[in-house]
Amino acid sequence: MKIRTYLLILPTIVFLVQPVGAASRDIYLMYRMYVGGFHVVNLNVDINLGTDAYKFDAKVQTVGMIGRIFPWWMRAYSRGQISDVGVMPLVAGQHNNWRGKDRYIDIKFNNRVASVDRIVPEPEIDDRDRVPIELRTGVMDLTSAVIALIREMDVGKPCRTQTAIFDGRRRYDLIAVPDGTALLRSSSYSPYRGETVNCRLSVKKKSGI
């Protein structure tokens, strides 16, 4: 869970920071992730952030020696609307494959109540309890929650929120608190250089864990 969460949060935080109401943008990102100097993961992200809607698609895949030993890939998506009221997710989900075994999750949101449209394997088979409807009310998917947080920060609010998240199997709270500022230096791995506002993210388990 932690690996998938961090991989999808990273590009969202770095590239969706733009003023509320700005013109729509289409962004295609390619990340190459290294551990100990070894290229281990590729991450490709497509983002369309408009004035009234957003689309997010990502694919993560292990590569190289790690990819041969631990073959894994995941495709994730999120769709929603943006208004003066805030960010409203419509659909989200993922398809991942671990050593040849497929797993699917597709979620629909209706008035902030999440329901599972498709899930393989079933939670009981996966040794989990189903998340009750009261814990699926007033929730968001992870990507939508991070977009909402960024929009709050764009208008001068601090990085401080606790958002209810449902990912099809688990219900948890995403907690964000300020973590100061820093000066990021460019390197052979990242060309960006400049001041950053840091957020510390954590999760609080609720159900389905």
Features:
single chain, 209 residues, alpha+beta, seven-stranded antiparallel sheet, three-stranded antiparallel sheet, 10 strands, 53% strand, disordered N terminus
Write up this protein.
The chain is an alpha+beta fold and 209 residues long. It has one domain. The protein is 16% helix and 53% strand. The chain is built from three helices and ten strands, in the order αβββαββββαβββ. The chain has helices at residues 2-15, 64-69, 142-154, and strands at 25-35, 38-49, 53-62, 72-83, 86-98, 101-110, 113-120, 161-166, 171-184, 194-207. The chain has a seven-stranded antiparallel beta sheet with strand order 1-2-3-4-5-6-7. A hairpin with a 2-residue loop joins strand 6 and strand 7 (113-120). Helix 1 runs parallel beside helix 3 (142-154). The longest helix is centred in the N-terminal third of the chain and has 14 residues, at 2-15. The model is unreliable at 1-6 and 15-20 (pLDDT under 50).
Q: Say how many strands there are.
A: 10
Mean pLDDT: 84
How does the overall form come out from the CA principal axes? globular
DSSP strand content: over 45%
In what order do the strands lie side by side in the largest sheet?
Answer: 1-2-3-4-5-6-7
Radius of gyration: 17 Å
Spans with pLDDT under 50 lasting ≥5 residues? Answer: 1-6, 15-20
* End-to-end C-alpha gap: 10 Å
Helix vs. strand class? alpha+beta
The proportion of residues forming helix, as a percent range, comes to: 10-25%
How many domain regions? 1
Order of helices and strands: HEEEHEEEEHEEE
How would a crystallographer describe the biggest sheet?
7 strands, antiparallel
Q: What is the number of helical segments per DSSP (H or I, 4+ residues)?
A: 3
